[in-house]
Amino acid sequence: MELHCKRFDELTTTELYEILRLRVDVFVAEQECARKEIDGKDNHAYHFWVSDENGLQGYLRVLEPGINSEHVAFSRMVVRKRGCGLARQLLTVGLHHAKNVMGADAVTVTARYTTTGMYEKLGFHKYAEPVIMDGTEYVPMKNDLSSI
């Protein structure tokens, strides 16, 4: 597996296509989540992905402060294979990047209710009441980066 990190303007058209294809395949097709996937925020982000000989296997978007919240925010976390630690790897790299490269003092995520346990294991905690978006329950969570 190979880890990649690029800003939006550094992505090749092929990389961007593969990232968007994975996001649409999982969020829109598989999870039937009717949302505006191309939301105008990609150009304000670091894009992390893991690939192997079969292509893109996992992705995480790390947004600059002020885009989703006052803090650095994780969004569009997606993996092709689940249960193999890939999501944890991407999130851990993202947390270190947020603190050490972006100078963040906290990271937020609006996590699907079913994924909150994974985020809690990485030091996130609920900081607001759950919200319903696109018919799905999400939990606002924050990591104060104290353990990074």
UniProtKB/TrEMBL annotation:
EC number assigned by the record: 2.3.1.-
Keywords: Acyltransferase, Transferase
N-acetyltransferase domain sequence ranges: 6-146
InterPro entries on file: Acyl_CoA_acyltransferase, GNAT_dom
Top-rank taxon: Bacteria
Database matches in PROSITE patterns: GNAT (PS51186)
GO molecular function, one term: acyltransferase activity
Broad enzyme group: transferase
SUPFAM superfamilies assigned: Acyl-CoA N-acyltransferases (Nat)
Protein name: GNAT family N-acetyltransferase
Organism the protein comes from: Veillonella absiana
